[in-house]
Amino acid sequence: SPLAFQPFLSYPPHMSTDLHFACTGCGKCCDAPPTVTISEALGLYRDFVLTVRLAGPIADAAMPAEHPAVVAYRSQSAHLLARGAERFDLRVEGRHFEATLNIYGGAVRAGVDDPCAQLQPDGLCGIYERRPQRCRTVPFDYWLPEGSAVANGSDRLTAAIKRGWLCDVSPDAPVVAVLGEAPAFAPGPYGVAYADALELMERQGPALGLISHAFVEELNRDPAVVKSVISALAMGQAVDFSFLRLLQGLDVMARGIAADGWVVGGAPIAPGHRALLEALPPIAAFLDGQIPLIQAAIALNLQRKRPADRPLTERLRALLTEYTALRATI
User: Fold this and answer.
1) Phi-psi bin for 164: left (phi > 0), alpha (psi -120 to 50), beta?
2) Is the pLDDT of residue 14 over 60?
3) What are the backbone dihedrals phi and psi of residue 123, each rounded to the nearest 5 degrees, phi first?
4) Fewer CB in a 10 Å sphere around the end CB: N or C, the chain?
5) How far apart (Å, rounded) are the C-alpha atoms in residues 291 and 311?
C-alpha cells in the first residue's frame, strides 16, 4: 500500500551520510501486488486484475497545529495537493477530520498472501521493462515529499534487511540518496524515477474527479460509511471503486472533450490530462484482458481450497459475472 508507512511518525534526524543501495533481484520486495498510477494501470490491464482506490492521510481537526501528527499531515497534504489530490472534510459523532485523498490503481490478488502476479520462479519480474514507478522507487514512496520519502525509505530499508531482504547496501553500491537534516535523492535513476512518478500523479485529474464525485455520493447515501472510511484512512487503508466503472466514465469524458476540440470552459485541457484520456484502451480490449486473469485467479483458489481465500474468490466471481455479461453486449 502507498500508505504502509506511518504518516504521523516523527523521524529522528539522521547523521549526515550517503545512503547506498542496489537491487540484487532477490524478489523479496515483490511480496504484494504493486500500486500504480492510473496512467500506468491503463497499460497493465493484461497483467493484473485491476481495482481503483482512493487513499491519503487524515488528521483530527481538533488537534493543535503544532502537534507532530498534524505537522506531518500538512507536509504530506501539501505534497499531494500539488499533484492533483483533493481535500475532504469528514464529520462523524461530533468530531471533524480533514483528509487529503488521491487516486491510484491496485491489483486484486487471488489469495490473501499471494505475492505480485508478475513475480517469476527465479525471483525476477515478468514485466521488468514495463514495471511501474512504484517498483522503480523501492524502498521509497513517491506519495511522500522528497525529504520524508528518503528518510522513511532509509528506515524501511533497514527494517527490510533485518527481515531477510537481500538488498546491497554495501559501500560498493551506488549512492541513491543523502541523509541528514535535509534528506534528498542523489542524481541518478532513483531521483529520476521519483520525479517521473510525480508527473504521472499529476495526470490523474480526470480520474480523481470522477472517483471523488462517486465517493461523495457514497458518503451522502449512508452516513455510517463515514465512520468506516475514517477508520480505514487512519490505518493506511483505501476506499475501493470499480476500475471498469472508472474506465467507462473516462471514456465518456474523453469522447465529449475530444468532440469539443480538447477544450473545457474555453481553455485547452492540461497536456497531462489529455495524455491520460487519449491513452484509454477500448472497453472491449480491457474486458478481454481482464476476464482471463480473473478466471485464472478463481481456478487457482479452487485448486488450493484455502478457507482464508474465499472472500477474495467471491469478489473475483462477482467481477467475472459483471465483466462477461458486459462483454457479451459489446
Assistant:
1) left
2) no
3) 85, 5
4) C
5) 19
